[in-house]
Amino acid sequence: MNLPPFKLERYFARYEFSAKYLLCSSDCESVTVGELLAMEPGAEERFKEHWLGYTESAGAPGLRKQISRIYTGIQPEEVLVHSGAEEAIFLFMHAALQPGDHVIVHWPCYQSLFEVAKAIGCEVSQWEAHRAQDWAPDMDELKRMLRPNTRAVIVNTPHNPTGYLMPAAQYRLLNQLAQERGILLFSDEVYRELEYNPADRLPSACDINPTAVSLGVMSKAYGLAGLRIGWVATHNTAVRDRMAALKDYTTICSSAPSEFLAELALRHREQIAARNLGIIHSNLLLLDAFFVDHPDRFDWVRPKAGPIAFPRLKGTLVEDFCRDLVEKTGVLLLPGTMYVHPGNHFRLGFSRKTMPEGLAALEGFLGG
Ligand SMILES: Cc1ncc(COP(=O)(O)O)c(C=O)c1O
Questions:
Q1: Distance (Å, rounded) from C-alpha 16 to C-alpha 20?
Q2: Could you tell me which of 145, 148, 129, 176 has the C-alpha nearest to residue 310?
Q3: Three-state DSSP class for 232?
């Protein structure tokens, strides 16, 4: 298959480990292995005793049990663990899609959500998030895009990069529509549990739609990207079995120490997510004031969930601005061109404890 370079990942590869302030990260602030182990008495000793052989291909039973608790009606056997969300996306596309299938993708999006389908030979249509509607996509547009050969709809809410959170009624309609038309809904829920108002949390697609596939990961809400543990949860046995068969050709099973640590973290997931939301809330207050002070430079839609937003830059080309900024101040922003988005936007991330210093450096750059 012919996959082009992953623009966002290549941009990060250039700056992520050298820039002083990561002001565009989509994962929450992480912790050390020691800090995670300290969450439970005896965990350090158990970790040292943990066996380093292969683990079960579908995921360690204890981990699948903890993951199933995130959902209301998912059994541990209905969870398939992967090496990050990225492997799960890759395998879902290969398990579910054939050349010539039509696929509709929530747009803009994390590149693999459309690129893998394209490389398989699918026709991919973009279901657009509209800036004028505070980044809401339009259900009527989606209905008009459906074709007899539409095989899957790929949706991501809370959304990367806009922070858009779909209203629950619309999300239910979307699931209902997909079910009625026999279309697979792949729901990327990696930012779930980072809703600023907990009442806005959506049900997981797998809990309201018997064929939908929900995607989750340790990286985002829980800030544990280095574990490389992701999963799908679904009642759809056919898709799950096909993904499991393909996994024998990618990673076979996940890393045993990572599975141990992920299971431990998930036992405390509410506490971990609450800590990360605390960082996001206090950084957002600073951003509110920052954008009020700079209406001539930025157009800001305050997100409803997650650690990122997609403001528009006024007056300068966004790629030039981001390059100048990182070279002169060490503040990393991600130009919207990495999403092939034409609107002069950039991705802003506010999940890091160092964000106030990074924002001050950005402020200084604007004044300079
Ligand atoms: C929407 C979305 N889905 C999937 C992923 C992949 O997650 P991971 O890197 O943990 O595999 C990302 C990572 O940025 C993402 O933003």
A1: 9
A2: 129
A3: strand
Ligand 1, from 190, 308, 310, 347: best to mutate by most atoms within 8 Å of Cβ?
190
Pairwise CA distance, residues 110 & 112, whole Å: 6
CA separation for the pair 114, 105 (Å, rounded) = 6
* 202's tokens: 């959506």
For the record, the structure tokens of 257 come out as 């120490």
Secondary structure letter of residue 299 according to DSSP: E
Does residue 162 line the site of ligand 1, with CB under 6 A? no
For residue range 112-130, what is the model confidence (pLDDT) as tens digits? 999 999 999 999 999 999 9
Rounded to the nearest whole angstrom, what is the distance from the C-alpha of residue 106 to the centroid of ligand 1? Answer: 15
- Residues with Cβ < 8 Å from 139, sequence gap 6 or more? 170, 173, 174, 177
Q: What is the atom index within ligand 1 of the atom nearest the CA of 156?
A: 1
Report the alpha-carbon distance of residue 156 to residue 216 in Å, rounded.
Answer: 11
Distance CA 316, CA 306 (A): 27
Q: β-strand 331-332 against 21-22: which pairing, if any?
A: parallel
| pLDDT tens for each residue of 30-56 | 999 999 999 999 999 999 999 999 999
β-bridge mates for residue 305, sequence order: 195
The total number of residues shown for the chain amounts to: 368
pLDDT tens by residue, 79-115: 999 999 999 999 999 999 999 999 999 999 999 999 9
81/244 Cα distance (integer angstroms)? 9
What amino acid occupies position 45? E
User: Residue 287 carries which side chain, given as an amino acid letter?
Assistant: L
DSSP letter at 48? H
Report the interhelical angle of 84-96 vs 237-247 (nearest 10°): 120
